[in-house]
Amino acid sequence: MICDHLTSAAGAPDRSPSPTGLSRRRFLRVGAAAGGGLMISFSLPFAHGQAADAGVFTPNAFIRIGSDGQIVLTMPYVEMGQGTYTSIPMLIAEELEVGLEDVRLEHAPPDEKRYGNPLLAGVQATGGSTAIRAAWQPLREAGAVARTMLVSAAAKRWNVDPATCVAKGGEALHAPTGRHAKHGELAPDAARMPVPDNVPLKRPQDFKLIGTPARRLDAPAKVNGTAVYGIDVRPPGVQIATLAQSPVFGGRVKRVDDAAAKAARGVRQIVRLDDAVAVVADHMGAARKGLAALAIEWDDGPNAALGTDDVTRQLEQATLGSGAVAQNIGNTDSAMAGAATKVEAVYQVPFLAHATMEPMNCTARVRKDGCEIWVGSQVIARVQAAAAKTAGLPLDKVVVHNHLIGGGFGRRLEVDGVIRAVQIAQHVEGPVKVVWTREEDIQHDMYRPRFVDRLSAGLDAKGMPVAWHHRFAGSSVLARWLPPAFNNGLDPDTIDGATDLVYALPNMRVEYLRVEPPGIATAFWRSVGPSHNVFVVESFMDELAAAAKQDAVAYRRALLDKSPRAKAVLDLAAEKAGWGERLPARAGRGISLQFAFGSYMAQVAEVEVSNSGAVRVRRVVCAVDCGTVVNPDTVRAQAEGAIVFGTTAALYGRITLKNGRVEQANFDTYQMLRMNETPTIDVHIVKNSEPPGGMGEPGTSAIVPAVANAVFAATGVRLRQMPIDTAALKRSL
Amino acid sequence: MSHDIKVNGVVRTVDVDGDTPLLWVLRDVLGMTGTKFGCGMALCGACSVHIDGAASRSCVTPVDSVGTSEITTIEAIGTTAAGAKIQKAWLDLEVVQCGYCQSGQIMSAAALLASNPHPTDPDIDAAMSGNICRCGTYLRIREAIKRAAQLNRHEG
After folding, report:
1. ipTM exceeding 0.85?
2. Considering only CA atoms, which of A467, A506, A468, A514 is closest in space to residue A487?
3. What domains can you pick out in chain A, each with its CATH number?
4. On chain A, which terminus has fewer CB atoms closer than 10 Å, C or N?
């Protein structure tokens, strides 16, 4: 998300990312691999088009073809369930003319110099549905260069014209004579061949792997219990710790009575920090028992009285003033003044926790001369830097072992858990695994920001929008996470989904006010900026259609003449969902449409509302145009998962504070959608040859307004706050 | 206090308090990390194991309550007929994403299939709704259970 936002902030209105346009020599280098074979070093930007600005060639991805034929790809993205470890190797296998099973993927070690992006103050991160978009062009080009050089090496060996040779099935072939040689056998010779200046990439119609469903390479270990997540590491002599952090953000430990905790069997040590207390034990059972036996007196500090309503008031107040202008088209004020009718609304979205199934954890060993970290992270180099800073060690004295991630969703783009583990490990002899309880995980998350949005629109005599004004207030995650990205009161993530709408709106102004809630840390959350903005924009668009007494799909469609790809997914979703067909009483369909993360998506949600106001999402139809589809099964899986994630937020997601304390604690008070509540989901993919768009996130932002609009269709009640308040819905029925 | 428990057919002696949840005995004492911690309150099912064939939440099962029962974990579920079919179906239908909850999902599904070879949708809801998947793989889990049940049918 981050890099992509930065590029889009740089201003290119063109939504079709073009190839980098770089001279190939500038971003790709070929040589002999250590131990024999061919090594291709190249530069993989974190989003399309950025290598061009890097200036100096700093490779961050490597393909090694050993003389044994083993192909190893080293690259900086991590697997967190999104299928990256399967989709990325497909790109190189395709151009190299080898099977997917012939490519082994290795994760890069932490090294911001090598793997970080200079544009991003050197952040090495996986997030924001950027991986496949960033890798699409450079990986295929690197594969094509390798293929060309292998074929040239074979032609030279056989003394034939390279044009008469081809690569096929992991070999170079000379069809006229039937001679063939394996890639591995040719690799050492290939390393000495000149690097071709221009290599043709395969045409889409010639793809053998891209666009076909591929088996996930990480699946077998995940069904038999052998997969190792961060929480599963067991370095020799490891002790287990769990902790209590100040229940009020910004509070401190005043007094601890740990006599009873120390007496618990298996408890080895109590570690008191400034704002937390940890119990170190032989196993988590003993650590938890010790924790329960601790009597901790807290100094709650300045946020002791803070409640959610305080934050809401602060945000509402802010939206009464003007903000930084994020979008300005035409003359909104005069168009509004001249409009036939005016529609106004105020929307709110709540703080949200990530609730990854693997609770926060990190294992650390701190010695005088070095530190070792075991963790599952989306930002491995930040882990290294945070550990070094906390332990007071130089960067090169910190070794980080990255492991599988039991759910990221943005939570593991943060290193607060690593800092905690190092702080505790500094008091402990040997390695200590710090495992947060679920309650700590939810109550000390860094949350999707709360926002308040004020919207108004002017409609002409036919009900079509002639003026659109959207002003909202809330936290900027990016301003903290990557300060250089926050400029002139704006950051590209927070406004994403609010400014570049698919609709033709002649007069439009969007303003943002950065308001940081006291004491509450905010963070990226699956579908980031659009998770908030698409709900607001698509709900309000529905309000305009209703005000104009028009069908919600037809109304949107009339605004899409300049967005054929958006129109196509809208039509497809409506058709597949049976839009317009009759439904029983208290059932309804709702539509949403968005362009985000490089993909066009429309969703139709079908809901039923019970007498008690409970909403059941029965069916979701999702139409997506994400450009070239690399692994269609992964596209479907990500859409399905993202829709469940967003439905969870629409029905249940809410973090609230009272007396400075988060009121939700575990899955009883912070509920997740379950099997019996899951709608049927039909995913329809538009086929085309546009560059690939991201798929990890769009489904989440698109489902929330679709559900809200469906509730409106079923009941006539407009939901301007998330999550759905069933009690209020019942009252209004 | 020392306890003898039978895990995947092997008797193991562990020296912990009797009220220690089985989950931590498996993970931290015996080093069997396939069984996962999710909530500690039997709300999410990530810690599911079989105790005498019944899916049980190990995070709330005191080790001294197990007695001589047979404990089966994800590490050995593939040796049971139902477990092997479930694992195969999980791979065939590409169920997993992050995978963290899938040990528990598979244990719940294998217990269901062992006791009910041809479960209906309501049967699947009843057996599986205690297992949370944050990646949202529920639809594929449902289809995979049906696929595994079909394997039962083909065997007669």
Report:
1. yes
2. A514
3. 2-214 (3.30.365.10), 230-302+360-435 (3.30.365.10), 308-351+447-732 (3.30.365.10)
4. C
